[in-house]
Design goal:
Two copies of one chain form a homodimer. Chain A is mainly alpha-helical and 220 residues long. Chain A has two domains: 9-71, Arc Repressor Mutant, subunit A (Orthogonal Bundle); 76-219, GntR ligand-binding domain-like (Four Helix Bundle (Hemerythrin (Met), subunit A)), CATH 1.20.120. Chain A is built from nine helices and three strands, in the order αβααββαααααα. A three-stranded antiparallel β-sheet of chain A has the order 1-3-2. In chain A, strand 2 (61-63) and strand 3 form a beta hairpin. At the A-B interface, helix 3, helix 4 and helix 7 of A face helix 3, helix 4 and helix 7 of B. Chain A binds a DNA duplex (30 and 30 nucleotides) through helix 3.
DNA sequence: TTGCGCAGTTATGTATACATAATCAACTGA
DNA sequence: TCAGTTGATTATGTATACATAACTGCGCAA
C-alpha cells in the first residue's frame, strides 16, 4: 500500500493560499507575511516560507517592500501575454485531444458540459466556475501529454483569479462561455482537430477581451 | 539606484545545481542530500533546502528514498512527451517571432547562426551548445510574449541535459542541426510564420528521434 | 526457507533564536 | 524650508537543535 497519511504542512498552506488568491479573498499587492500566516496556521515560519516560495515560483506572488512577499500584481500587458499564451496552448491541447481522447474521456467531457447547462440555467456561477475548470482540465489531460498538461496548468492558475472574477461580474458571460464549450465539445467528438483548435482559441480570446476590459476599467 | 549587491545564497546554489545537472555532472537518480551540499557550499541546510525545492518545482529533481531529493529520472515516454510539447511550443514561438521580431532582433539572430557556422567547422560542440541555446532563446523572446517565453524555458531546461548529450555523442548532429537552424532563420527573415513553424517543429522532432534512440540504447 | 516485525540508522520536517538588510521617520544643519 | 543622514523598526535570511518518518537489516518464528 502507498496510502499517504502524512500531508506536508507546506503544501496544505500553499493550497490554501492559492485558494484565497484565486477566489479573490487575497487581492493583488496584499501582504503575505510569514509571522502572521504562521500564527494563523499554528505552525512555525519554516513551512510558511516554503509555501510562499512555491507561490512565488508559480507566479502567484512576488517580492514587495521589505523583501516581503505580496500577491502578484498583474498589469494589462502581462494579462494579454498570459491569455495569448494560454489560448495557444489550450488550443494545442484541444487539437490533440480531438485526435487522442479515449471513448471514456469523450463521454466524461460531454457529461461535464451537460452538467454545466444546469449551472447556467440556475445562474450559479460558483458551480459553473468549477465545471469550467473541469472542462478545461479534461481537455488538457485528454491531449495525453503530461508535459504540455503541466505547462498549461501553470498558465491557467495565473489567469484563474481573473477568469473567476469574469463569471462573478458578467452574468451573461456564463451563457456565451457555455455556448463556446459546446462548440469545442462537438469538434472534439467529431475528432476534428483543426475545428477544436479554432474553437478553443476563440473561446480563450473571448475571455481575454472581457478580462482586459475589466482590468482597464478597474485601473482607469 | 537599484543595484542589487546581495545575491541570495539559495539562488546561487540553485543555479550551480542546475549547471551540474545540465552538464551531466549529476546524473538521473543521483542523491541531492542537504547536509553534504550544505557542507560543500559552506552554508546551513536552510538555503540548500530552498534550492532543492526550487529544483523540484522546476522538474529537475524528485523525491527519492527516505524523502530525499534525487536528480529526476526521466523515462522514454516522458522524454517523448517533453519533446513533443517543446516542439509545439517552440514552433509557436517561431511563428510569432517571424511576424513580430524587430529588425535588430532579426539581425542578432542571423549573427548567432553565422557564429555557429564556425563552431560546426571546428567541431566544437561545447561552443555549439551555447550558440544553440542562444538561437532558441532569441526566437522564444522574439515572440514578444513573456508568458510563453517562460513556459517554454521550463521545458527547455528539462530537456537540456539530453540535448547537450546529443551533441557530445553524435558529431554529425552538429551539421544537420545547423542546417535546420538556417532553414528556420530564413523563414523568420522572410516573415513567413507558417514556414518558421514547420521548420522549428521538424528541428525539434529530429532532436527527439536522436535523443530517444540514445535513451533506449542506454536503457536496453 | 520465508515472512513478519522490531529496532537502528539516516535523512528530512519543524521550531526557534539570532543576524542582517531594507524601509521609514525624525532630526539636524545649511 | 529642504536635503541628507542616522537610528528605530520590521520583516526576511540563516543557523541550529530537536522531532519524526522511512528505509535497512537482523532476528525470530512458522
Amino acid at each position: 500500500m502507498d496510502t499517504k497519511v502524512t500531508v506536508r504542512t507546506a503544501e496544505v498552506i500553499y493550497a490554501e493560499l492559492v485558494r484565497r488568491i484565486v477566489e479573490g479573498q487575497l487581492g493583488p499587492g496584499d501582504a503575505l507575511n510569514e509571522v502572521p500566516l504562521a500564527a494563523e496556521f499554528g505552525v512555525s515560519r519554516t513551512p510558511v516560507r516554503e509555501a510562499l516560495q512555491h507561490l512565488s515560483i508559480s507566479g502567484l506572488a512576488e517580492r514587495g517592500p521589505r523583501r516581503a512577499f505580496v500577491v502578484r500584481r498583474t498589469d494589462v500587458p502581462m494579462l494579454e501575454d498570459l491569455f495569448e499564451a494560454l489560448g495557444e496552448m489550450e488550443a494545442l491541447c484541444a487539437r490533440m485531444a480531438a485526435l487522442r481522447m479515449t471513448a471514456i474521456e469523450r463521454h466524461r467531457l460531454a457529461a461535464t458540459v451537460e452538467e454545466a447547462d444546469g449551472a447556467v440555467r440556475d445562474g450559479d456561477h460558483a458551480a459553473y466556475s468549477g465545471l469550467n475548470a473541469r472542462f478545461h482540465a479534461a481537455i488538457c489531460s485528454g491531449a495525453h501529454n503530461r508535459a504540455l498538461d503541466a505547462a498549461t496548468q501553470v498558465l491557467r492558475m495565473r489567469t484563474l483569479p481573473w477568469r473567476e472574477a469574469q463569471f462573478r461580474a458578467a452574468a451573461a458571460r456564463l451563457e456565451s462561455s457555455q455556448a463556446e464549450h459546446r462548440g469545442i465539445l462537438e469538434a472534439i467528438l467529431a475528432e476534428d482537430g483543426e475545428a477544436a483548435h479554432r474553437a478553443m482559441r476563440g473561446h480563450i480570446a473571448a475571455s481575454m477581451l472581457l478580462v482586459t476590459r475589466m482590468a482597464r476599467e478597474r485601473a482607469g
